[in-house]
Amino acid sequence: MKSLDYTERAVACFKALASGDAIGKQTETLSPSDVLRWYPDGISGFHGRAGDVILRYAGNRRYEWRIGETTDDTEQTLAVARALLGARPLSHTAVGRELLTCRKSIHPGVSMWAFHRQGDASSIALDGDGCGAAMRVAPVGVLYSPERWDELVRAACEASFPTHGGQLAICAAAAVAGAISGAMEGKPAAEVLNLGIRAALDAQACTSASKGKATLSMAALIQEMHADLSRHDDLRVNDLAEKYFPDKNENKVPLAINLALHTQSAERTILLAANLGGDADSVASIGGAIAGALRPETVNEAWFSVVQAVNADDLIQVACALARLR
């Protein structure tokens, strides 16, 4: 594949990741009915003027999130990317150093809070099964092709260790990295799915130090959800909410991967996740990244223009740098 193709896919991946993050933030933690209470016509993009405080966050004591602003999902993605660009093979200590510079969503009750309180870049979390590792692992899939499989799986594990050492979290991160790696090659959706499942299975070898063992298999969860959703002609918010509402760790990453591969559209994936609510920003971000890499033409450029104007980060430069290294 030509370098230009990799660059196009990497840029689309990062654009959709950041756009999904910002659009999903509008409805994070809401139920589908509450989404409609705040947005009677549903989410169709950004609602309001770029840079203004999102109405439901006005007066929020932790932080007043702005329309178009990205969250810790994008911030930590850039942290992993900087660690990868700095030295390879990737180490959890290099990731840890970059994560200690992150400032968004650090409050009691989240894994990053404990990590920052400890202040040790070399520390390894022995538990934590949320999607915090999966949401930041896209750079690993952008950099490593399926031909560098062992490096890819190991890097996904290393990116997880600082905050999410539970088996479910590590395997979820590996699944996302594997899926993005396949999407970067333009492989058919079925092959992208299989790479995600394979990575989740192989990552189990990285979890021997975890506290206990997961009672659920991330690979099985992804595969079973795919089989179920494949029986439907269309994906509807109410149906998804009834069976796979993304407020549980076992639903979030499988849902993100399956939305991306069933729709093969970054825009459609992001809108489905945002209208679902729950962990909308992470599902939209992860799913958007996979779909964007797979089908760059489905990225909504108008959405990303808002994101770029509000955040003014080096997202595109970082994506291009990773693509050149691939």
Rg, nearest Å: 18 Å
- Category by helix and strand content: mainly alpha
Count helical runs: 16
Q: What proportion strand?
A: under 5%
Measure the end-to-end span.
11 Å
Shape: globular
Q: Using DSSP, what is the number of strands?
A: 0
Q: What's the story with the biggest beta sheet?
A: none
Flag low-confidence runs: none
Helix-strand pattern: HHHHHHHHHHHHHHHH
Helix content: 55-70%
**What is the mean pLDDT?**
95
Mind sketching the topology for me?
Elements: H1 3-25, H2 32-38, H3 72-86, H4 92-99, H5 111-118, H6 138-143, H7 149-160, H8 167-184, H9 189-202, H10 218-229, H11 237-244, H12 249-263, H13 266-276, H14 280-294, H15 301-311, H16 315-325
Helix pairs in contact: 1-13, 1-14, 1-15, 1-16, 3-4, 3-16, 4-7, 7-8, 8-9, 8-12, 8-14, 9-10, 9-12, 10-12, 11-13, 12-13, 12-14, 13-14
